[in-house]
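Sample A.
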Amino acid sequence: MVRGSFLRSGSAGGGTSIRWAPTPSSCRFWISLLPIIGFASYGRSSDHPPVFPVKGQVFYDGRPAAGAVVVLYPVDGDVAKTSRPRGRADGKGDFDLATYRAGDGAQAGTYVVTVEWKRAEDNPEQGADLLPPIYGDPKTSPLRVTVTPISNAPLVLRLTAKR
């Protein structure tokens, strides 16, 4: 049982107000419910399709492409209406794809992979791409990947200037 009491107090204008004053035991009761409420909401389906972890590495002429941006475009479906998982390579060329949250992965399906690598001082949306243009356009990129609901092997992208 939740316990507490109503307190009546006077105000400067002559009126009275009533407020709830919980006892320490009622506070402990409500605090004890917080983990239960949290666990009940954990893992609930959201408004979006499930995603699966995808990790990878990107290299250009054998060297890690630190800062390169990898984007997946669905082969099937309306590209304008679907999410495009993306990731940015770290100093070793490693990246984790994200669709809704950092590192959550990509939906199951087949994708065209694009990679753009701009100089660090350039704005990520502008500036010269250090890679051949073929890799940055989903219409011309030769890179493909299939994401499955089961364990996905790391995606290793070995790009060359000879494309």
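Sample B, a different protein:
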Amino acid sequence: MSWMQKLYEVYTACEGEIGAEKLCPPYHLSKDADIEVQLYPDGRLAGIVAFVKPKDGEDNDAFTIYPVTPASYSRQGTTAVMTPHALCDNVKCLNEHYIANMSEWCSADTYVKERLSPILTYLTCGTLAADIEKYGVKSNEKSFVRFDILDIGKPKLYEDKRLRQSHIDHYLAQEQPADDYCYVTGEIAMPARSNQNPKVGGNGKLISASDSSNYTYRGRFTKPEQAFSVSGEVMEKAHNALRWLIARQGERQGDQTILAFGTGGMKTPLNDSFKHGTSFADDDDEDAPKIIDTEDEFASRFNKAISGYGHNLERSESVAIIGFDAATSGRLSIYYYTEMPWKELIANIKSWHFHTSWLHNYGNRPYFGAPSPADIIEVAYGEHADDNIKKSVTKRLLPCIANGASLPSDIMHSAVNRAVNTGGKDDWRVRKELAVACALI
């Protein structure tokens, strides 16, 4: 579980970024709110606001970090109304169960009672649905609602650090005091709950135990914790770091996600290797030519661009690269994982780009550079290649870019064979296939 240890180290190193950089504290999740219900300190309604999706470059005011309960953590389907979250939730979940859970939390902490009492007062009146309609806000039972109290001098509820810490303490107080060995830290600590299966990218889970019948645990164990045990704290921090990193710098390729990061959460140039070849060419130098069409010019600006990634890294910094694949809607698999020194990754990426660079003169903006994996797949297997082929080839290309592995000869031969067969193709496609094939030879 070195990948989990690495993610735990990232969270520890970046813990000061909680909230400001959308990194969630333990036992919290994040989501864009659809509606904000604004209340006065006495519980009277002040207003209801609907959020719209922000345009590129605009701040996302709807982003919300919210607490989850032990029961709501991995809820599914119809169980949602019975297991509401602690503060923000869908319209249908702001029911009597929500009020009961919040009342219990308020009774355990006077600060929480002071801050959340207006919500209890308002919801007890049962006018939420009518008020939403009154304010002309379009909603349904799945609309995600957050609350805020217009209390001068007090932080917003969903940004209140003291409220977050109180929830963490309240959550842990509900745990069973049964310590076990944590395979990540090597310490004795409270293990993760059986239903504490953090989701990554929708409903995908990386760790689960559902082999309690028939061929039980492949005949090796009688209980899942005998195979592997991790503390609840590590489980939370590692998965929160993973979600944060994927949203921040993950490269998605269909059902696959490729993530490269340093311990401090630093970005790497690996992402750019999966994009169209012009990405390394773009910079802020107004005097630099906007089109790179020579090898020397490409080399110069590529080195300038790639050197900017590591100027804040220590020489001993290592980089982790993880490849995820969504085998099903509820399961994620790790198909690739490696750690290497930062300098080695930089050298491997340089090698890939310099050995596969070619003049691409088939689009609106010609450029000299390496073809993206998507272009390689399209040329080698056709623009209508099956998703399984795309996933398989992406898995095989990742070690070539990140580890300096040799390009599989069958991919190169397939690209060449399709490139020399020019019959019935548009001129731009012929030039594209020839450029990509030449880059791979």
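Observation for Sample B: The mean pLDDT is 83.
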